[in-house]
Design a protein that fits this description.
alpha/beta; six-stranded parallel β-sheet
């Protein structure tokens, strides 16, 4: 029995991951590591990221903090607002606890260091795609060790002086 209908391949059932980094060798490596498990795209600017999110409709964006055409954290905030179901995972060489906190505050569901091995990245991707949050173990430990840095660096007297200055009192 033959059909007059043309053969239509089945749509991919792979989850979609969009990588955004300004270094092409990093993008190539990321795509290579993830391509067997995910439908992968890669872009090198925030402008291309915005367009690709609209065209590709990824389940997850893996994004760097610093991009040549802007701030990754601000871009993530805008993406999460415009696309409520979109998950964002940061992959960055910047591991300062303040940046990790800021990233999570704007709606990211994960943060991992570029120093992490590829299998940790894949674990992070799987975790966030399955509804969890992921912060690399090194980052978590560092953030806990630092705590609220400003609070620890100031003496009680210095905090009191800052409060008084904020209230409009003179430095005297």
């Amino acid at each position: 029995m033959t059909s007059s209908q043309p053969f239509m391949p089945l749509a991919s059932t792979k989850r979609k991951v969009l990588f955004s980094d300004d270094h092409h060798i990093v993008l190539d490596a990321l795509a290579y590591v993830a391509q067997d498990e995910y439908d992968v795209r890669a872009v090198d600017t925030l402008a291309a990221l915005t367009q690709s999110v609209a065209d590709f409709s990824p389940d997850l964006v893996v994004l760097d903090i610093r991009m040549p055409d802007g701030d990754g954290i601000e871009a993530a905030r805008q993406l999460v607002q415009r696309h409520p179901g979109l998950k964002v995972l940061f992959l960055s060489m910047h591991t300062e606890p303040q940046l990790v906190r800021r990233a999570m505050e704007v709606g990211a569901v994960g943060y991992i260091s570029k120093r992490a091995p590829a299998d940790e990245l894949m674990l992070a991707i799987r975790t966030v795609l399955n509804g969890g949050k992921y912060i690399g173990p090194r980052l978590e430990t560092q953030a806990e060790a630092v705590g609220d840095t400003a609070e620890r660096l100031l003496t009680e007297r210095q905090k009191e002086v800052l409060r008084l200055i904020a209230q409009g009192c003179s430095a005297k």
